């Protein structure tokens, strides 16, 4: 069993310039993996969507907003999220998470590995 110190490992995480955050893989394989990230106060992840598979989110600390846009219809909605919030973003839904608080927004997300590679699309 490998025990991971989130804070230490995230400081050394890989910066993903296309979405603007550091990402740390915690566990999983190509089919489905769990990652940890931190969004600084006032920062928004670049909006994007995936054609295949859902993304599961779990807010560890902080608060923010998740903007969702249905790629097919253009229907948009925004949800407030905070510590202990969990939600699922379905495939073909553009999503953009913003930190609206004064502290870092720390979250875990789980998805197919392809969401961080070839199945990430920007409008």
From TrEMBL:
Superkingdom assignment: Bacteria
UniProt keyword annotation of Metal-binding present: yes
Secretion signal, residue range per the UniProt entry: none
UniProtKB keywords: Metal-binding
Pfam hit, one: Cupin_2
Transmembrane helix in keyword set: no
Location of the Cupin type-2 domain: 36-109
Protein name as it appears in the record: Cupin domain-containing protein
Lineage of the organism: Bacteria, Pseudomonadati, Pseudomonadota, Betaproteobacteria, Neisseriales
